[in-house]
Each structure stands twice: as C-alpha cells, then as structure tokens.
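Exercise 7.
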Amino acid sequence: MTTRRDLNDCGFSSETIAAEYETDAALKEAGNDLTDPYFAAAWAAEQEQRHLDWDYAQKAQP
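Solution. The predicted structure, written as tokens, is:
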C-alpha cells in the first residue's frame, strides 16, 4: 500500500523539504564536514524522502 504524499509543483513533499532543511542544518553544524555522522544520517533521511516522493509520483501516473 502506498501512503498518499502531497507533492508540490516541483514534485517534492513537505517531508522532503523538511529533510532538506535538516540536512542543511546538519552540514552547517558539522562545519561542512561531509564525513560527520549527524550529516550522514540527515543526508540518508533526505534521500529516503526523495525516493518516496519519486516512487509515489511514478505510481500516481495514469
């Protein structure tokens, strides 16, 4: 079963946008260290949200 995701005109959900903000904050907090575990976790969560958006958009196609 696919959970409904409300996508904006660019194809992103509010969950993805929130994850992007979290990733940006994590990177800033990590001093732009891409190997920081907090950044890595935030980045993984953002990618997961992006994939969920993409999957939902593909299944919603007529």
